[in-house]
Amino acid sequence: MSKVKPSLPKGTRDFLPNEVMQRKYIFNTIKNVLEHYGFVEIETPAFERLETLTGKYGEEGDRLLFKILNSGDFLSKVDDTTYQEKNSTKLLKDIAEKGLRYDLTVPLARYVVQHQGDLTFPFKRYHVAPVWRADRPQRGRYQEFYQFDADIISADSLFNDVELSEILIEVFKRLQIPVSIKINNRKLLEALAIYANAPEQLVGITSAIDKLDKVGMEGVTNELEKIGLNENQIQQIKTVLAITDITALEKVFASIEIGRKGIEEIQFIFDNIDPSHVQFDITLARGLTYYTGTIWEVTANNVQMGSISGGGRYDNLTEMFGGQNMSGIGISFGVERIYDVMEELQLFPSNIVQGVKVLLVPREENNTNHCYDLVKKFRSYNISCELFTGNIKKQKQFNYATAKNISFIMEIGSDEIESSIYRIKNISSREEQKLSIDAIIEQLK
Amino acid sequence: MSKVKPSLPKGTRDFLPNEVMQRKYIFNTIKNVLEHYGFVEIETPAFERLETLTGKYGEEGDRLLFKILNSGDFLSKVDDTTYQEKNSTKLLKDIAEKGLRYDLTVPLARYVVQHQGDLTFPFKRYHVAPVWRADRPQRGRYQEFYQFDADIISADSLFNDVELSEILIEVFKRLQIPVSIKINNRKLLEALAIYANAPEQLVGITSAIDKLDKVGMEGVTNELEKIGLNENQIQQIKTVLAITDITALEKVFASIEIGRKGIEEIQFIFDNIDPSHVQFDITLARGLTYYTGTIWEVTANNVQMGSISGGGRYDNLTEMFGGQNMSGIGISFGVERIYDVMEELQLFPSNIVQGVKVLLVPREENNTNHCYDLVKKFRSYNISCELFTGNIKKQKQFNYATAKNISFIMEIGSDEIESSIYRIKNISSREEQKLSIDAIIEQLK
Question: Which residues of chain B make contact with A35, given a CB cutoff of 8 A?
Fold first, then answer.
């Protein structure tokens, strides 16, 4: 075996044990809320047939898919004429049939169509898994990263919109992240385009409004001019965007049917949740054109970062795989960003990075058997513990206990063994007690 | 978007919600034991540099690695002379730099060398993750499957061998799988080769003994003849293989130093565990040549299946990446086979596939608001529940509750709303009670 200086592919990461514990804390908090609301977890393979993935994410997406080379003599089936062209795009079709998962949405659509007979509808599923994109890596952007999606398929009832709003509130409450949860409805943006006499410009208007956060109202005005709207139309849009109150908006859209429907939907949500946790925001657009109703976006307060969660209602998820049209609604938790926010605001509870209760350290080599007897005794009381099996040099064991977030350390020599009185030290307070083993068990239980 | 009939790449699987719950039960049981013993979890990326993986698994392994095509115009850097050869092996080097993880051992070695300064030694880590192999798929063999490894790096002390023995006992006890845990020591096999006057034939002898289960003693005899051992030598080996008692073996190996050492090591383990749970077996060889001391193998009793767990002590894990030589010891849980065994023996506890406590079903559309008020009330008492948001046709809701393993169902109409007395039905016993909402909350809490 040749010696290779070890390194990782660009844009990928190892996780150290403490990071894994912190990440699991986030995942488990979200999972617990979702399971409390009746969501179940699914899993799909890391790679899918390229046929399944290609064409679902636009041209850029196709380019960013990681393709897996066919196994064995992958060139054997390539005909010479094609090969001679030396064209990557053409050759690709003949040498790669699989690609790494790019998101969790297309696999969900495939899964629902493929297993339709085995699923229970309304199908409330969550899925947390890595996805891979051949993006240029940069600070905070990786080629391998986790997504965490929760969706309801066959979700006609507006109570699903209510429940997902509640879930967003509950998750960030449990994570103790101060957030703004904004809500809007795609139908109101359609109404806005009609109101401004430019229904055919819905996509352009939405995309202009979507940039409001970045470019300000002036920038939006420029965008709207660019797509050909006149001063009057732009003024009408700006008037509506300034409205923050649903009742006021209701009057403006009184004669636009889709506007009335959008108002009704959003009002329904506010009627069924604690309205103080969610803000209506007509300027919330979200770029994805497949949304048809409710849309959400969550940002962390006082942190410079994009949205950490979001989602919405959509209609034609399963259509791409020939499934019957089923309404869907879903939210996605940006778990990588949530991690960064919690790091920055120091929101991780200290007790989640937690080792065993107690480390037993023999003072001399020949005290080890006695230590191990105590280890077995502790374990019989379900007290987690470790025997220090490393090289015995004073202070190293203490470092071991500190690094592994162990709560107590007991160093055991012939004095302790003879007297049956043991010293137990609290690692964080450095306080030491002398106790019988039964008293120690009582304390650690 | 074109419509594609959805399917999966061969050798890969989706998991339905109930399967996910059962798999998580296995993973969590093993995790809980390991964490109780001070093991911490790590994560590594799904793909590694091919440089890291190639040459570590033999020629067949290299062939079975899934290679990832370089992004973008992957042919642009291939020079024409190389390209003209149309040779898959040669072209591969220029068009693929990454490969999917083949096991968790090589990533561990890389990880330990790369993060040495950030780790605490003895480093007890576990890692549970999918690995990928381009093997021909067949019943029970997949191209994507999970491995679950626990290793201790820098593990000179024999107490590590003791602890891993205890962990094997504890895990299968908690999973309630009746197993045989066999233990041997590589040094005894070395002693055996010396005893038979064929020390240079250690690998051949080990590999012959390794086949004992499949080919019987006659087959082993044939194998030993094939590698050139004479009748006398073979007889000596067979005599030793018939010994089941450590004390008896001690006498046979009395004059062979490495034999005495092996006996000492294995005796040390038996002195520190409950010996009734583990069997010494001199015929346990395990093919992997890198083991240097203790070896384990676990099989499920009364099930036709290979080993479901195994492991051993090894020496030079980090050497392949230029790390200093660190002793290591580890075990691997065959989680896919453990799942199959538990299915076959029906060992999954029924309560692990568990939905919410109660499903609330409006009898008429206009009872939904009242139902949702109750949902909110239940949740405020931390009672998990779901509002049925599907189409209301009698019996469908009951199917929904059954399929999702929900414990109780409450159908609510105007009668219940007016009288404030609700009917709650136990899904499994079909027993129904009529109670006030406070009484129901008391019962569900």
Answer: 356, 384
pLDDT tens-digit series, residues B67-122 = 999 999 999 999 999 999 999 999 999 999 999 999 999 999 999 999 999 999 99
Q: List, for residues A183-198, the tens digit of each pLDDT value.
A: 999 999 999 999 999 9
Q: Which two tokens stand for residue B318?
A: 């980090």
Nearest CA in chain A to B74: A88
Q: Interior CA angle at B306 toward B300 and B309, to 5°?
A: 65
Test B47 with A144 for CB contact under 8 angstroms: yes
Confidence of residue B4 (pLDDT cuts 50, 70, 90): low
Q: Is B82's Cβ below 8 Å from some Cβ in A? A: no
* Window 276-305 of A, Cβ < 8 Å to B: none
Is pTM beyond 0.90? Reply is yes
Is B358-444 in CATH node 3.90.1310.10?
no
CB atoms within 10 A of CB A441: 16
Picking from B152, B123, B241, the residue whose alpha carbon sits closest to that of residue B191 is B241
The CATH number of A179-300 is 3.30.930.10
Strand order of the sheet with strand B309-314?
B40-41, B123-132, B144-153, B328-333, B309-314, B291-300, B179-185, B278-280
Collapsed DSSP state (helix, strand, coil) of residue A197: coil
- Taking alpha carbons only, the member of B106, B103, B114, B108 closest to residue B66 is B103
Containing A240, the helix (H) or strand (E) segment is helix A231-241
- For chain A, the farthest-separated pair of C-alpha atoms sits apart, in whole angstroms, at 94
Which positions in chain B touch A17 (Cβ < 8 Å)? 40-42, 125
The single-letter code of the amino acid at B93 is: K
User: If contacts are CB pairs under 8 Å, which of residues 370-399 in chain A contact chain B?
Assistant: 372, 379, 384-387, 389-390, 399
Residues of chain B with CATH 3.30.930.10: 9-164+302-345, 179-300
- Consecutive H or E run containing A402: helix A396-403
Cβ distance B6 to A74 less than 8 Å, yes or no, reads: no
Per-residue pLDDT band for A61 (boundaries 50, 70, 90) equals very high
Flag whether residue B2 sits within 8 Å of chain A, measured between CB atoms: yes
Could you tell me which residues come within 8 angstroms of residue B260 by beta carbon, excluding any fewer than 6 positions away? B250, B253, B254
Domain A9-164+302-345 has CATH 2.30.38.10: no
